[in-house]
Structure formats: structure tokens, C-alpha cells
Amino acid sequence: MLLPGIINAYMGNRKKILEKAPEEQINSVSNLFSILSHPIRVKILWFLKKKKSLNVHQIQNELNISQSNVSQHLSLLKINKLVTEERRGKEVYYSLTETKKISKVLVSALHLIGYQLAINSELLSTYSGILSFWA
């Protein structure tokens, strides 16, 4: 099952899913968190939400990493339907597939770790800033 489908199913049918989570859904959720487990991929999603559409070179400049590294992460995000691509002349631009739903997933993950961050007052302002960005 494709990740946006999982996100749609979860957002629209949370109670049923939580009551009885079939193995396929559990594996899909695990896969989603695996994809989001790399900081570069989360940063790419962050920049795509902020800028709406970027090409590989723009993402490379934002993250200060190699083009091949950016391309590898974008490929994984694209395969899992978290980003889409659009060719404009010689350049390929990437954008989020479902900005609001992807933001909700990331905000939910931030809520899960929010308490731990709030314990350390230095991190609380960072957490609040990140949370308000994705909300």
C-alpha cells in the first residue's frame, strides 16, 4: 500500500485502525517511520513545505550536501509517494504530495517527543518553533 493511502486511511479512520491494526498496516507505519528516520529526508520535507517546490541543486544548496546524496534521498521519498516531481525545461522540481497530511504526521511525531524536549528548557523553544512551522 502506498504511503499517502496509509496516511489518508489513518486520518479518516483512526478509531478502527487503532482498535485492530492488521499486520500490513503495522508494517506500513513502520516503513513510514523508517523513511522519516533520516534527518536529511525530514529536512528535505521541511524545505519543500517551506518553499513549495525545489530542484536538486536548490535542495543541495539548502542542505550543503552532495547532489548524489540529495538525489538518493529524493528517490526514496518519491518511491514512497511523499514527493512528486515535475519537469520544467531541463530541471526537475520536487514538491510534497500532500503537504497538510505529511505535516500532520510529522507534528504527531513531534508531539510524541515533545514532553522529553520540554524537560530541557533550551530545547523547548526549538520544539515550539518546529511545531508551529508544521502546524
CATH topology of the largest domain: Arc Repressor Mutant, subunit A
Question: Stretches where pLDDT falls below 50 for ≥5 residues?
Answer: none
Fraction of residues in helix: over 70%
Strand order of the largest sheet: 1-3-2
Q: What is the molecular shape?
A: globular
| Distance between the amino and carboxyl termini | 26 Å
Question: Which class do the helix and strand fractions yield?
Answer: mainly alpha
Q: Major sheet: size, sense and barrel closure?
A: 3 strands, antiparallel
| CATH class category of the largest domain | Mainly Alpha
| Domain count | 3
Rg value: 16 Å
Mean pLDDT: 78
Total strands: 3
Strand content: 5-15%
The CATH superfamily of the largest domain is known as Winged helix-like DNA-binding domain superfamily/Winged helix DNA-binding domain
Order of helices and strands: HHHHEHHEEHH
Count of alpha and pi helical runs = 8
CATH architecture group name of the largest domain: Orthogonal Bundle
Structure in words:
The two termini are 26 Å apart. A 3-stranded antiparallel sheet has the order 1-3-2. α5 packs across α6 and α7 runs antiparallel to α8. The chain has helices at residues 3-12, 14-19, 23-35, 39-51, 56-63, 67-79, 99-119, 121-134; strands at 54-55, 83-88, 91-96. The longest helix is centred in the last third of the chain and has 21 residues, at 99-119. It has 8 helices and 3 strands, in the order ααααβααββαα. The protein has 3 domains: 1-35, no CATH class; 38-97, Arc Repressor Mutant, subunit A (Orthogonal Bundle); 98-135. The chain is mainly alpha-helical.
